[in-house]
Amino acid sequence: MPASRERVPDLALVTAPSPGPVTSDDRSRLGCPSCGSSHVAQVLGDNGGVSYVCTACGHSWS
Question: What are phi and psi of 16, to 5 degrees?
């Protein structure tokens, strides 16, 4: 659990990067396509792929 509970501002929704490896910079700019929130968690998909879920609105995508 974080030591501080201060609100971190949401980042603007970014366009999908071109195909290729995902860098840490790409991950830090990831936003929910539904609500635009930057509060996104990376989860393991059903078939071993990577999926994402927005912790603000609950939207999930891969």
Answer: -65, 140
